[in-house]
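TA notes, week 10

Several of you asked for a full example with nothing omitted. So below is the full record: structure tokens for the whole chain, then the designed sequence directly under it. When grading your own attempts, check the secondary structure regions first.
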């Protein structure tokens, strides 16, 4: 039987049947009386002979079937491994294609931002400087001047000054984004009152919010937080400035601050503009994304597309999060920021 089992395992079903028949013949020839012949004289030996034949055939068939099942299982395993590797390769190619597409989109956005935010100020500076130079040259030649006058010259110089500041802000934004992407943003944390930070940010934003009404709610017993005051004030300023850009003049911008849960505090900036669609709410935090450019909301005063990306980087560097919800009870958007407070004291 062991020989039959070996044959079935090694060569399969048909050789196992042949080995079973040969085994039965040998069993009859060598072990059943009369020995050395193929005759069977005792009826009990017929029973033993038939039992051996059935056992041999059964063992051979079962062994061959087990071998087939093992081969099928091995083949299925190889097929699963092949499909897994193909699926993994597909995912890798898909990820690479997605990353490439994102990279191309980012390069396009960067080119658009650089073209818009560098060329526009440079054009204004060039035009103002050219006008001033022509006026000076005309005066030197004692020929007909452009008749700018003192007011005209002052206006040209103010244009140059404002557009230079705009260029400086754009380059500063690029620098901040580069530091955030490289994980090199440095925070000078200290235990601070978010109410004072909001006050500083609103003071800075006054020139941008003169056409709006500002309402501020800061809850009593608001816990202090270990934050970088200047960085968080930059976040508040960006959100207020964004609200002023995308809401009509005369509407209200609401700034609120309250304790959160699990040792956190929250502040929000809410406007009465057209709001932000659900599918756009994550994209507005992407680098160089400008809602007006991408066909959602906005006006000609749309910014560089860096402010909200920088704000998210600052918030996440503090271990917090920033997100967008619908405004409460009216059209508009609400930007919410949650920051951990750590050691809490009431201020």
């Amino acid at each position: 039987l062991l020989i039959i089992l070996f044959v079935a395992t090694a060569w399969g079903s048909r050789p196992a049947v042949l080995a079973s028949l040969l085994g039965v013949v040998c069993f009859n020839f060598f072990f059943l009386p009369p020995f050395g012949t193929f005759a069977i004289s005792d009826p009990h030996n017929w029973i033993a002979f038939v039992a051996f034949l059935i056992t041999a055939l059964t063992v051979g068939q079962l062994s061959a079937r087990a071998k087939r099942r093992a081969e099928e299982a091995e083949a299925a395993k190889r097929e699963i491994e092949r499909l897994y590797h193909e699926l993994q390769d597909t995912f890798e190619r898909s990820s690479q294609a997605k990353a490439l597409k994102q990279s191309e989109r980012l390069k396009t956005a960067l080119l658009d931002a650089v073209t818009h935010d560098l060329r526009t100020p440079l054009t204004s500076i060039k035009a103002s400087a050219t006008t001033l130079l022509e006026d000076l040259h005309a005066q030197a030649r004692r020929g007909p001047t452009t008749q700018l006058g003192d007011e005209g010259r002052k206006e040209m110089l103010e244009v140059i000054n404002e557009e230079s500041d705009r260029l400086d802000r754009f380059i500063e934004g690029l620098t901040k984004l580069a530091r955030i992407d490289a994980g090199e943003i440095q925070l000078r944390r200290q235990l601070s009152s978010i109410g004072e930070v909001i006050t500083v940010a609103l003071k800075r934003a006054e020139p941008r919010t003169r056409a709006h009404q500002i309402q501020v709610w800061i809850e009593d017993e608001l816990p202090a937080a270990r934050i970088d005051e200047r960085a968080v004030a930059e976040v508040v300023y960006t959100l207020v400035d964004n609200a002023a850009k995308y809401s009509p003049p005369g509407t209200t911008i609401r700034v609120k601050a309250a304790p959160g849960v699990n040792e956190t505090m929250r502040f929000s900036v809410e406007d009465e503009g057209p709001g932000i669609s659900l599918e756009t709410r994550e994209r507005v935090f992407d680098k160089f994304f400008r809602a007006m450019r991408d066909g959602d909301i906005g006006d000609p005063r749309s910014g560089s597309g860096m402010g909200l990306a920088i704000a998210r980087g600052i918030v996440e560097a503090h271990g917090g999060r920033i997100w967008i919800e619908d405004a409460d009870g009216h059209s508009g958007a609400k930007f919410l920021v949650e920051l951990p407070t750590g050691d809490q004291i009431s201020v």
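Residues 225 and 341 are 4 Å apart (CA to CA). Use that as a sanity check on your answer.
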